[in-house]
Amino acid sequence: MHSINLSTEDQQICLKTASESILHGIQTGSALNVITENYSEALRQPLASFITLHKHGQLRGCIGSVQAHQPLINDIAEHAYAAAFQDPRFPPVTTGEVAELDIEISVLTKPIAMAFTSEEDLLNQIRPGVDGLILEYGFNRGTFLPSVWEQLPDVHSFFQQLKGKAGLPANWWNNDVKVSRYETSTF
């Protein structure tokens, strides 16, 4: 898996863009329109991202995608807006909350399908603290970023909770399940 190397300057630009997109959303009701050509080559490459918002250490929104479908800088602007105003678990962010938000950006490597013969074989291959996982079965789908390991450090509970997020029972297993892994660069 190739890692993502963004310069400190590019990371700062990403965080500033996310913040500006949230402010733009409060003022206009839409994400910041980013002119891709104005950014470095690294920020123009197609990469997937997740934006996680925290307020006083508590989750306040998290939206992203696991497949790259547009330049990274555009992805960040869209997901920052969506995390602030479209996460169905939370009411939209208000003007008064903006200054209290901590923005975390996770840039994802391309997901790689895992090969396994059983649930136990799969669990033995998972790298706690490193792997983000995508679980797919039929119309059921869920993902956990590597940062979720901080709350669920045990591989069995991590995978059971991921099944729940995908709408499947914790003790469920089917050999036709698809699992992919990815890594993130988080700042």
Helical content (DSSP H or I, runs of 4+): 25-40%
Poorly predicted parts? none
Shape: globular
What Rg do the Cα atoms give? 17 Å
SSE string, helix = H, strand = E? HHEEHEEHEEHEE
| DSSP strand content | 15-25%
Structural class: alpha+beta
* Total number of domains: 2
CATH class of the largest domain: Alpha Beta
- CATH H-level name of the largest domain... which superfamily? Hypothetical protein ph0010, domain 1
User: In total, how many beta strands?
Assistant: 8
CATH architecture of the largest domain: 2-Layer Sandwich
Major beta sheet, strand line-up: 2-1-3-8
Give the tags:
single chain; 5 helices; alpha+beta; 187 residues; Dna Ligase, domain 1; four-stranded antiparallel beta sheet; Glycoprotein, Type 4 Pilin
What does this structure look like?
The chain has 187 residues and is α+β, with helices and mostly antiparallel strands. It has helices spanning 8-28, 41-44, 72-85, 119-125, 155-165, and strands at 48-55, 58-64, 101-108, 112-113, 132-137, 140-144, 178-182, 184-186. The chain contains five helices and eight strands; from the N terminus they run ααββαββαββαββ. The strands form two sheets. The protein has a four-stranded antiparallel beta sheet with strand order 2-1-3-8, with helices on one face. The longest helix is centred in the first third of the chain and has 21 residues, at 8-28. The mean pLDDT is 94.
